[in-house]
Every structure is written in structure tokens, then in C-alpha cells.
Amino acid sequence: MPLLAASIAPDILDNTTVKQVFLKNENYIPADPEAAISPDDNLTKAIEMMAKHNLEILPVADSLNGKIAGSISFRDILSAYRLQLDEHDEKISISLKRRTLKMIVRSKNRVSVLKKD
Predict the structure, then answer these.
(1) Where is each CBS domain found (predicted)?
(2) For residue 59, what are the CA distances in angstroms to 8, 11, 25?
(3) Most buried of 1, 27, 49, 59 (most Cβ within 10 A)?
(4) Which value, in Å, is the radius of gyration of the alpha carbons in the chain?
């Protein structure tokens, strides 16, 4: 599974940290404390840990004291991925619309220059 996710959009998963996504819950009791992840790790590492330990929810341990700060689920990661992918697609769409408008304006300017001659 990590290979599939990383091949789809490596930038989104590599550039998003666990602390941007995880649910804060100090009362969370992990099934496997050995599988804890740091809030500073990226989502790619979280997916790899989930696959390695066959878990859908990972404990997030505070980097300084090692205490459980909360948890992150595969569903949380998918939601963050979809949100960022949608934002990325929206930016591309806006960019394409602007480019199209610029082309239309340029072509109109060229036509008006040709008509003057």
C-alpha cells in the first residue's frame, strides 16, 4: 500500500506532517505502543508504519517525552490527502482559466491590430 500512495502523489504525503492531521487524545490506549509515530513524521511514514504493523490506527507519541498525544487513522490520512488534492486541482483549474483568458485577450488584441492595417 505505501508504494501505491506514494506513486499517486508523493508530494502531498511527503510534505504533510502527522501533526497537521492527527487527533489529539491523551487518553488513547494504543494496541501496539511499539508502532508509535512522531507528530513531525510525514504521512508517507505513517502509511508505511500502518502497513508494517498491520494497523489502521497509529498512536502519535510526543517527540520530547514519548507520551501518547493522540492517534492518526488511515481514514484521517485519506481525508487530508483528498483535501490537499482538491486544493491542488483547484489551483490548476484557476491557472488554466487565467491562461485561457490571457490567450483570448491576446488574440483579440492581434485581431484589432490586423484590422487597423
Answers:
(1) 28-90
(2) 25, 23, 10
(3) 59
(4) 22
